[in-house]
Amino acid sequence: MTDATATCDLLVVGGGINGAGIARDAAGRGLRTLLCEQHDLASHTSSASTKLIHGGLRYLEFYDFGLVRKSLREREIVLRSAPHICWPMRFVLPHDSHLRPAWMIRAGLFLYDHLARRRLLPGSEAVNLRRHPAGAPLEARYARGFVYSDAWVDDARLVVLTAMDAREHGATVMTRTRCARLERRGERWVATLARADGSTIEVEARAVVNATGPWVDRFLDGSTPVRATHHPRQVKGSHIVVPRLFEHRYAYIFQAADGRIVFAIPFEDDYTLIGTTEMDYTDDLATPAIAESEVEYLLRLANRYFSRDLARKDVVWTFAGLRPLLADPKDRATSVTRDYVLDLDTASAPLLSIYGGKLTTYRKLAEDVVDELAPRIGCTAAHWTADAPLPGGDLPSADFDAFHASLVKQHPWMPATLLHRWARAYGTRAMRLLEGARSLADLGEEVLPGLHAREINYLRREEWATTADDMLYRRSKLALHLPADSAVILDEWLRRHPSAGPADGSLVHPPG
User: Residue 222: exposed, middle, or buried by beta-carbon count in 10 A (0-12, 13-18, 19+)?
Assistant: First the structure.
């Protein structure tokens, strides 16, 4: 039965990067905003990306200059807004026999450098791989290559920090809360939200955004009176993680003979992330997993380039995510645009559904969505997110190294690895975690190596984390560095130590 009611201006369904971005933008413009997510934040596509903020070099092949330009502009904004979780990375493209002529690649990189104003990143250059440090791990036959700039991001933390900023601007964020039904009553929507404990809440909203990602059409057809106008093609992208293949901090971009792009990226200090594949997917949307054929494909491509051969036993972790693309089934997945389409139904109260999109352009997508809906519900507030840091991102001069050095000086008793991880994950919010602490004992019980009770309680209180998976795989990647039974130990500890913070699924910030 329904045990609570609420009203809001905007209901956002879906807690991936697009939903979080929209809630943040809308709340910052003064709209009473409620976001609901059926699982944890970033449970699906938004924590299963290649973790890049990039212009999309390969999209130049398909003359998608508009998307590349937009992505390059957004790249600079994300770098400025969250320098603790997003930082510049140089990518090495070895020239291979099946690629375009070197002069043509150089011309493409020149275009990539200049499609949008570039303030933070160096431009591209040709390099001799027999002299450049990035050539050392490669097969000896690769003598020539190119280096260009993009950026790396912790994708799941980007979602969480965006949702935190939405909440700090007044939004309500309800995780593990499914929008079971949506119906129009006059000029408003009435949503029935089902929580994990079996209770429901009825929410009245003036407008709704369907930001359910892979579920976008199923949500419309199954839970609303509006029928989907598009049925996206689900394309699965899979990744493998192997022990570190190289010591330097460059990443690699390889183009396979079949046209697919695969990256090899420094990951979590001790590992290399390799991906992604692109395969059509028709199974359960909630549980995509890498196929053995994909593992073999990625290993085979890595072995074509790196002098150290990898085998199946070297794979320590895999993950896969879905991209809902608007495409003809006959099109190659690699050639389908990653730009987004906004589909607005205005039969009565507005319902806007999002098809497509990519991590890099989430902020611009959110801005476009709120620009479209705000005037329809009487809001005239201006854009604001382009120059606003995300929580923890207000580092002095956006200088992470200087900020980290100041933390080390102020807290000499903190283990170096732990303090660096906190600085990266939380930025200036690490100061809240460290407030009043003078020794490791002040951080509480060390539940797992490097994970103390104080951090666990912060994640529950501030970041909606409730399970070991939330903490060890999405809020961090600690699972890669801990014993295999760590999740079981942490879940048992969480069961024995109920959260003292806001309960998941409660109306922490009522929208009314």
Answer: exposed
CA distance 206 to 188: 5
Question: What does the pLDDT look like over 382-432, one tens digit per residue?
Answer: 999 999 999 999 999 999 999 999 999 999 999 999 999 999 999 999 999
Measured CA to CA, the distance from residue 11 to residue 229 in angstroms comes to: 21
210: left (phi over 0), alpha (psi -120 to 50) or beta: beta
Phi/psi region, residue 450 (left: phi>0; alpha: psi -120 to 50; beta: rest), is left
- CB-CB contact of 267 with 241 (8 Å): yes
Nearest to 54, CA basis, from 358, 297, 274, 318:
358
How far from chain centre, in Å, is Cα 244? 23
pLDDT tens readout for residues 345-395: 998 899 999 999 999 999 999 999 999 999 999 999 999 999 999 999 999
Q: Which domains does the chain have, with CATH numbers?
A: 2-45+157-231+337-387 (3.50.50.60), 87-153+233-333 (3.30.9.10), 396-496 (1.10.8.870)
pTM above 0.85, yes or no: yes
419 in helix, strand or coil?
helix
> If DSSP codes are grouped into helix, strand and coil, which group holds residue 331?
coil
Give the orientation angle of helix 65-81 with respect to helix 362-373, to 10 degrees: 100
List CB contacts of 68: < 8 A, sequence separation 6 or more.
55, 56, 57, 59, 60, 112, 115
- Which tokens in the block code for residue 411? 């807290």
Contacts of 508 (CB under 8 A, 6+ apart): 167, 172, 173, 502
- On whether the CB atoms of residues 355 and 232 are closer than 8 A, the answer is yes
ω before 276 within 30° of 0 (cis)?
yes
Cβ atoms of 158 and 13 within 8 Å: the answer is: no
Contact between 44 and 286 under an 8 Å Cβ cutoff? The reply is: yes
Q: Amino acid letter at 345? A: D
